[in-house]
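Hi support team,

I submitted a single chain yesterday and got back a structure, but I'm not sure I'm reading the token output correctly. Could someone confirm the output below corresponds to the sequence I sent? I've pasted both exactly as they appear in my results page.

Thanks,
R.
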Amino acid sequence: MQAASEESFQTAFRGYFTSLLSWAQLDAFWEVVRQHASAGWYLYAVSESVPTQPSSSEQVLNFIREIDSLLRAEHHEDYCGIVYTDSKTEPRLIKIFDPNNLGVSCGYSDNPPLPGWIMSRIPPQELTDHRPLPGNRRRWWQKLWA
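Hi R., thanks for writing in. Yes, this is the structure output for that exact sequence:
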């Protein structure tokens, strides 16, 4: 059974995504996700342990609040463009790129950079990022769950 969920995650992860280009689009999108906070979201920081259980509604709402704050504080652009989803109205997978480690997050590549964080309604599979997670990001992530 685990192999099937991993395959589903990998298929979804490599599937079609659309960007939330403007901050207003991100605001509207977070509202959609908030309405589905109890939908069984797995919250995953790439390079950290893969979650084995979905997060609670409260954890999802806290994560949205904190990641939105981090993105706005550290992505010094008048547009968002670093949050991608498989659907703006019925999301199952959301990729959130770290504003301090973007590389080329858009466009085509055989080996695109990994997002910093993933919200998934599909049990996630470990993604290997060969760069160590910076200490400030690790502390930020751990503080969310303290």
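A quick pointer for reading it: The CA atoms of residues 16 and 108 lie 12 Å apart. Let us know if anything else looks off.

Best,
Support desk
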